[in-house]
Design a protein that fits this description.
Blueprint (H helix, E strand, L loop, with lengths): L18 E4 L1 E2 L18 E2 L2 H14 L5 E5 L8 H14 L5 E6 L1 H6 L2 H9 L2 E9 L3 H6 L6 H13 L3 E8 L7 H12 L6 E6 L7 H7 L9 H14 L6 E4 L10 E4 L3 H12 L14
Parallel strand pairs: 1-4, 4-5, 5-6, 6-7, 7-8, 8-9
Antiparallel strand pairs: 2-3, 9-10
Helix pairs in contact: 1-2, 2-4, 7-9, 9-10
Length: 293
Amino acid sequence: MLVHYDMPLWRPPSEAESFILQATLGCSFNRCSFCSMYRTKSFAVRPLEAVQAEIQIMAHACPGTRRVFLADGDALAAPTGHLVILLRLLHAAFPQLERVSSYALPANLLKKSVEELVELRENGLKLLYYGIETGSADLLKRITKGATPEAMVTGLTKAKKAGLILSATVILGLGGQAHWQEHIDATADLVNRVELDYLSTLQLMLDPVIHDEFHRKFREPFQEQDDWALLIEQVRLIERLNPPLPLVFRSNHASNALALAGELPKDRERLLAQLERALAGRTSLRPAWLRGY
């Protein structure tokens, strides 16, 4: 390992070949009841001197780097001026750099102006990964997401206006057996109101560390969905998605029982046919022991 990382380290699946640069540590919110990713860390913006030293190490070892992902979970919480300097350092160090990406929290997009987001894009930030999780206002409170559906629409609209590429995720099973229809219908409604480029589904998987917290904050007995019920959720979601622009759809994250890939609305019928085959038992699902985050 060329760079010393402050573990644990997380990245989106599509950033597997990227240089992972920890611009910040942890998550400034860090209270979502379904997420244990950064519970062992305190949030901090790393000094530019430390980050620059790691960039130089990688520039010497991998000068042809084309993609960089800014970790940890909340790089956009750093001041805009700080991030602009960081982006310029990256482009100076890697002449072939094509894309810099980052996670984005709802609060990040609300706090930064469209002008600030434009400045970041003009200096090389291209893609944001955004966790919608659910479009239900009630469920967002139950999972302590720290955002409302309207706030998410506002933030995502600002990011798209700034010209950023948006990749969002939703979590199947987040409403449990009692609220699954509300979860899916409200999620589809939210997605249909914003111009996303990519949408991926994950399946709810609770780390034992936060299992009790999640159930306590849900405020009522939570009964998890089984694989069959989650496939039904996927059917309902795909049936109701009518995005304002063509949307690349994926369920190939390792947590999913069934991997799907297509473009909506163009591939809707094909995706539904794949789900129908799985529900009929004619397609094998990913074994539970092979799933994870």
